[in-house]
Amino acid sequence: MILHNYDLFEDCYRVRLLASCTNQALELVNVDAFPGAEEKSPAYLELNPLGRLPILQDGDLTLRDLSAILIYLAEKDSEQRFLPKDPAARARMFDWLGFACRDLALAAEARAVALLDAPGDVASLRAKVRELFRVLDDHLTRQALKGEGFVAGATPSLADLALFPAFALSRDFNLDHDEFPQLRLWARRMRQIEGFITMPGIPDYH
Amino acid sequence: MTQTGWVPVALSKMIEPGTSAGVVAEGAEIVVWRDTSGTAHAWEDRCPHRGMKMSFGFVRGDHIACLYHGWEYDESGTCQYIPAHPDLEVPKSICVARYGVAESGGMIWAHLPLGSEPAAASELPVMEGLRSLYLDAPLADVIAALGAERTGSMIAIEHAGVALRIGVQAVSERRSALHITLPEGTPDSAKPMLLDWCEALRRQVEAREAVA
Fold first, then answer.
1. Are residues A72 and A36 in the same domain?
2. Where's the Rieske domain (chain B) (predicted)?
3. Which member of B23, B192, B199 has the closest CB to residue A145?
């Protein structure tokens, strides 16, 4: 499998993190996204007319939607360890995967404005992401009452892996972790997953 | 209404051994950390080297290390080790300012302002932490919404038959935190309702602020 990758994009990290935790090898093709905007070059627009990364290729299959890529990798995992078997548990997991890939795209946007010269208003994006972190912190507080340490159960799921980068990287756009005690504990648990890897901006101190 | 003396800054259970967290009280940035033997510490959240927040760093045994260059400080706040100069005997003058710290009633308390001589902390009954609630409102408005009297930095109210004890923290002039604790042995069945109440309180207080 080939991942067209830029190390500093959190969506590319999401894919690398899942691949690492499911023990699947990715061949990385590093794209000069910043400042080169190579993902918008004619050659890359042929691969993804939307001009975005990540892009995953597996034989004839080309995927460019983040959730499609993540679900594909999670299903290809021989143990499918991050996909709950029970339909209700799996649906809950997909509910939070949607939150990670759709709602929290605002966090990736805020970070791109702060770090990578993307256009936008970082203060307003930061305020919106703070609201989303509250939703997640409230949810994990309720999960903790049930004795469940992750968003969709007692063990980490695909949704947790997709959510983690947004929180771990939020200091890049000046959203600190002070107000989210449950998220801090959860992020610490995420670091214990076998195969966990970091990216620039996420300290590797364990 | 400046908050001085003992101020609750976190629920005990949210600062696990070997971890650190940044908190803000009366605008002062504080790192709260717990060493691996379980002792809590509250320091100025600033490495003397380059001003990096210590709360971004990591705990190693009874030391905390800065994320930038790994300078390590012992429990007295004194720098003990500088990785770039491993053979250097570090001058004792390199140290982080410490707050008086206490742990009581399920909360970690820091003595404000920095440099004040901590009075003996009062012994509160053992309590179970429910959650910390952060609100975009001045502390006076939050306390008014609770409709309760504050004793020092504590509020006692009853909700749904549970005797809550709440530690109050002025984060800044516009932000507050409530550290909500329950008597030990509160039935689990009562807790989801209390979380509903917390979230509703935050919505109600912040909606009022938006109008004001």
1. yes
2. 6-110
3. B192
What residues pair up with A4 in beta bridges, in sequence order? Answer: A29, A55
**pLDDT (tens digit per residue) in A117-160:** 899 999 999 999 999 999 999 999 999 999 999 999 999 999 99
Continuous segment of H or E residues that includes residue A70: helix A66-76
Strands A2-5 and A27-30 turn out to be parallel
Domains defined for chain B, CATH in brackets: 5-112 (2.102.10.10), 127-211 (3.30.310.220)
Complex confidence, ipTM: 0.94
Across the interface, whether the CB atoms of B131 and A182 are under 8 A apart is answered yes
Chain B residues with CB-CB distance to A185 below 8 A: 14, 16
- We report the CATH number of the domain holding residue A21 as 3.40.30.10
Kindly list the residues from chain A whose CB atom is less than 8 angstroms away from the CB atom of residue B182. Answer: none
The 3 state secondary structure assigned to B162-176 is EEEEEEEEECCCCCE
A109 and A182 fall within a common domain:
yes
CA distance A2 to A56: 6
Q: Tell whether B90 is within 8 A of chain A (Cβ).
A: no
Window 124-183 of B, Cβ < 8 Å to A: 131-132, 134, 177
Residues of B in contact with A206 (CB under 8 A): 58
Q: How does pLDDT run across A68-96, given as a tens digit for each residue?
A: 999 999 999 999 999 999 999 999 999 99
Q: Does B79 touch chain A (CB under 8 A)?
A: no
Task: State the total domains in chain A.
Answer: 2
Backbone φ and ψ for B19, nearest 5 degrees, come out as -130, 165
